[in-house]
Amino acid sequence: MKRTRFNLMMPSVFLISLFFIACDDDVPVENTNALNPEIFFESLSQVEAAVNASYNQFQIIYQRNGYIFPDAMSDEVVSSGDPNFAPFNRFEFNATLENIAQYWTACFNGVGACNFVIGNEERMRTNAATSDFSDTDVDDALGQAYFLRALYYYHLVKRFGGVPLKLDLETALEDTPRSTADEVYGRMIDDLVLSSQLTFSKGTTETGRVTKEAAYALLGKIYLHREMYSEAQQAFNNVTNHSLLPLENYRDNFSESGEHNDESMFEVGYNGEVGTEQERWAQTGIGTSEVTFHSQDYTGWANARPSSKVIAEFEEDDPRLNTAILIDDTNTYGPGDAFQFPCPGCVGGPVWYKFSQLYDEQDVSENSGVNVRIMRYADVILMQAEVEMNLGNDQAAIDFLNQIRDRVGMPRYGTATMDARGFPVNTPDQIFNAIVHERFVELSGEQQRFDDLVRWNLDDLELSIFPDANFNNPDESLRVTRNYDPNVHRVMPIPQNEIDSNTAIGPGDQNPGY
């Protein structure tokens, strides 16, 4: 049976009363309807149950909204008009949309679960002396919780900017004002430094759990996004025990059968199990719903089609194109060329191939058990290239880029072939253009592009025009404009129900333009 790490449902955000529901026999769980901290954390299984609960809100987030928001707002996707996607693709969303509130709530539920672990460190340390777990187990539990709390806040700060910082159990039920984005990033850095010191290394802990390498990778990513390049370089230098998959196994980065491979650094786990129809669609974490709609949304229903812009970005001989996207004239696809295009239950192309059930010869459905890859080693290498470029180490940056090129058998940067293709790397600006290109194609459809464009200050240029067939037409009358305003849409609105219910956040605290 496929194993999943995110299997414990916890509807209570502040953990006064917890409800743990196990979906994996491999994880020992204490099932109770009243997990009082005063009588909890007395056994290893209870410590693990509390830590497991810290993971599960990501399962809710990436059931749908976690990939909708950044992808629909990017230039990689054109919406079919589905109401879950269209407002974000057109930049017509507002503070009353239910899925924005769902996302906010899930992230803070996750923060609350992490705080339940972190806030009981003293109790765990005391019990370790007489129980079946050790101080080392406590360290690892805390390290996982610190990483996950930072990752929840990463999702919050990228989508909303400054948000309330809730860092302990005592203030969890209190109305809390917004902190600044800088304050949120500072807390994330502190948490990730602790996580990198406390967690186990890859290969020495259960598959699917946070590792030391993942903590360093996310820490490096935060440093890069904060333009702290020397700190980012140091963090990335600590990312070991991972490697790029060879081209023949490249699809394992996106398939159910290839989960937790050497390139994967952190995944949100699904196993394809679903309870009632109501549980499947609720996106609340209550009941059993171990599925993501990603495959159906992107491949079956084509609610988020790959744009002609992202397709055009691939070089003609790039094997990654046929791994990422199914084009109209594709005759067969999948292992052993077993499927005809369009696939059963799919509309015509182009549609996304990445993360679909088709890789494992399954029909596309809402019950996808394909894990979401939050971070993989290819992303780290491309971030290292960017760090080295910003530190003035041009050749080191090119060398990192060429690791990605070598893996897929593509011409190397710094050669006459790539110069002729329009990607010379003789200056820092040219190296930057190569990084932009390589991230666009390597990480297409992986929720990276929108945030990349924002931090590069390329968002106004790239997102103001719909990325359809006319995205590069010199005749502006044929270029359909989007409603993108960089002074507004770099972040989403604070949910209206938060403003209405939180006495520490008023209408004047709403993000500008909403």
Describe the structure.
- Strands 1-3 form a two-stranded antiparallel ribbon.
- Helix 4 (98-118) runs antiparallel to helix 6 and helix 15 runs parallel beside helix 17.
- 42% of the residues lie in helices and 5% in strands.
- It is mainly α.
- The protein has 20 helices and eight strands.
Q: Characteristics of this structure?
A:
514 residues, two-stranded antiparallel sheet, 20 helices, 8 strands, two-stranded antiparallel ribbon, disordered N terminus
Instruction: Tell me the fraction of residues in β-strands, as a range.
Output: under 5%
Q: Rg to the nearest angstrom?
A: 22 Å
Biggest sheet overview: 2 strands, antiparallel
Please, what is the average pLDDT?
A: 88
Give the beta-strand count. Answer: 8
Order of helices and strands: HHEHHHHHHHEHHEHHEEEEEHHHHHHH
**Count of individual helical segments:** 20
Strands in their spatial order, largest beta sheet: 1-3
Oligomer: single chain
Structural class: mainly alpha
Query: First CA to last CA: what distance?
Result: 47 Å
Report the helical percentage: 40-55%
Choose one word for the global shape.
Answer: globular
Poorly predicted runs: 1-34
Write a concise synopsis of the structure shown.
The chain is mainly α and 514 residues long. 42% of the residues lie in helices and 5% in strands. Residues 1-34 have low confidence and may be disordered.
Topology (SSEs and partners):
Elements: H1 44-61, H2 65-72, E1 77-79, H3 86-89, H4 98-118, H5 121-128, H6 135-160, H7 181-198, H8 212-225, H9 229-237, E2 264-268, H10 277-282, H11 294-300, E3 304-306, H12 308-313, H13 320-324, E4 325-326, E5 332-333, E6 339-340, E7 351-352, E8 372-376, H14 377-390, H15 394-407, H16 416-420, H17 428-442, H18 449-455, H19 459-463, H20 496-501
Antiparallel strand pairs: 1-3, 2-8, 4-7, 5-6
Helix pairs in contact: 1-4, 1-6, 4-6, 6-7, 7-8, 8-9, 8-14, 9-14, 14-15, 14-17, 15-17
